[in-house]
Amino acid sequence: MTTGVRRRMGVEERRQQLIGVALDLFSARSPDEVSIDEIATAAGISRPLVYHYFPGKQSLYEAALRRAADDLAARFEEPCEGPLGARLLRVMRRYFDFVDEHGPGFSALMRGGPAVGSTTTNAMIDEVRQAGYEQILAHLDVDDPPVRLSLVVRSWVSLAESTALIWLDGRRIPRAELELQLVHDFAALCAVSAVYDDEMARIVAGMLADEPLEGPLGVLVSRLMAIAPAALSPMARVPRPRSG
Amino acid sequence: MTTGVRRRMGVEERRQQLIGVALDLFSARSPDEVSIDEIATAAGISRPLVYHYFPGKQSLYEAALRRAADDLAARFEEPCEGPLGARLLRVMRRYFDFVDEHGPGFSALMRGGPAVGSTTTNAMIDEVRQAGYEQILAHLDVDDPPVRLSLVVRSWVSLAESTALIWLDGRRIPRAELELQLVHDFAALCAVSAVYDDEMARIVAGMLADEPLEGPLGVLVSRLMAIAPAALSPMARVPRPRSG
User: Residue limits of the HTH tetR-type domain (chains A, B) (predicted)?
Assistant: First the structure.
């Protein structure tokens, strides 16, 4: 696509080519730094011809983001088969694949700013979050989620986002570790919610029912049980005051 | 301030009054919906006089946001005395006080959009996040945080944000419950991080060392221990496959 060889393309084919070229450029650097001239050069066409297909950089950016959003939403899809922990881990791997492929563009978009924050782009971000939310609920086999489950899933989707952004800033932790950690974080946030709510406790018990001991959630629980006594022993030393 | 009584004010006094009036309006409704006319009326001055002090709505919005950001950052400050869980809970209460007072403006700002997303406003948001991050680290008594601790604290700050935003959207869970839940979430995310990292395990053990059994973290641990057997028993039924 960047050979500069001109050949006749149909309107839709040319639009799709430009979107692909733009998405590559917007993914590799902050969209603020990508010019229409650069996109034209990469697509092997003239600057006026780019404007023939897209009225301005913002509309091309939004079309590229549309394609990226559809791509990301599709990566959340996972067959509802087998243990939940393993399913979530596969989704997290595909999520980090996406983040890895689109790093600088993903950071710029999620951190907001003049070139990337518009009503349209924010609506697309929310749409992807909603797709993630609905996919997780589908895996939990819950049609009408109680408000606390809804909160846990939505806030975990946001945790996955912030974890990915922090990872992109220096990549100082291996991504495979973070993929697993986010599955564990999900279980941990669910467990916290279950502490004060019987309905959540039942949902969490259901989540764990089919988990093998060697799966991601089984490993978390057994490791926590292994390190808990050492971590908790100081607590037991504190005398409990008695009331009355 | 909204009585309409005109009296002579110094330049700085008038600026501060306008910022206060604007902050009240921007807090109560989405900033998109607040006009300069409205701010002028609420301040009891003419529209041109508002422009005399602030060149446009964006500069007045940013000045109001500056005041709100300083206010929020100050609420993170908490003496480094007594058990950690109780300290975090007091910080979370003040955080939700702020969110409660500035609900619609907080939502509009954090969700981004044309009227609120600018380089300046995003920098202020990051500054408040950084203040929260540094405060938490100060309480953990860690000067040079390992990368995994840094990740846990930053991602928890973002979790507190998304939890507050979800709460504002309908207020369907009592805020006191969410304040406590966020303290528990912090402990849970730390525990997950400790599972794979010895340094984090030592930090978590240090965090728990001074926790009383009846404090927020002690209660979490004892409740988890109480519900764990029922939730985990199905897992134990799954036979573990043997390799070879």
Answer: 12-72
pLDDT digits (tens, 9 = 90+) for B111-156: 876 566 778 888 999 999 999 999 999 999 887 899 999 999 999 9
Tokens representing A8? 């006749």
A198 in contact with chain B, both atoms CB, cutoff 8 A: no
Question: What is this model's ipTM?
Answer: 0.88
Q: Same domain for A82 and A61?
A: no
Q: How confident is the model at residue A242 (pLDDT cuts 50, 70, 90)?
A: very low
CB pairs under 8 A between A and B: 165
**A240, part of any domain:** no
Q: Which residues of chain B are within 8 Å of residue A148 when distances are taken between CB atoms?
A: 173
Q: What is the CATH number of the domain that holds A165?
A: 1.10.357.10
Question: Which of B129, B98, B209 lies closest to B107, judged by CA?
Answer: B98
**Cβ contact A62:A120 at 8 Å:** yes
Which DSSP letter does residue A215 get? S
Determine, for residues A204 and B241 on separate chains, whether the beta-carbon distance falls below 8 Å. Answer: no
Distance CA B89, CA B91 (A): 5
B194 found inside a domain: yes
